[in-house]
Predict the 3D structure of the following.
Amino acid sequence: MMDGKIEAEERVRRGSSIGRRISALVATAVLISVLLITAIFVFNDLTSDIASRKQGLEATGYVFASAIADHIGNGETQDVLKVLRSINRIPEITYAAVLDSNGKVVAALGGAIILDGQPLKTDLGLLDALSLGAFPVAVDIIKSGGRIGQVLLITDISALRVQLAETIITSVIVALFASLAGF
């Protein structure tokens, strides 16, 4: 009789161990699922946000390129600088430069620090842009059907990094709560 009671207790103990294992498996699956779904949505949101900002910056660059084209063509550096000064009214733009057809800076405003010694790339990927906290856009200055220079604009996206960090932290906390609810 005593052996039967011990066997029954052993079965109950093993059953609760299996139940804990299943609960842990479900909690882990919920945690991984929530984190993966969040990562996908965050990636899509960041990609579209950066693409939207890039399009807006390119449009701004084309407006300034159009306003500067005659001045560059005529070699009127002071007038180029006057037009370029109006970029100060756009707070996201941290640096703006006008380059001639040889790539020489004609006029520049703002501050840009490039430490790697490499030429500035305007086709940055998502991770490169986030790590820099900025991304550049260059548009051609066209006059009489020919390229006579370039407008280079650099915009600050460091706020996106803060937003990304907050989203990741919030998602991890929510995922942990969701997975603990399974216990």
Notes: The longest strand covers residues 146-156. Strands lie at 93-100, 105-110, 134-143, 146-156. The chain has four helices and four strands.
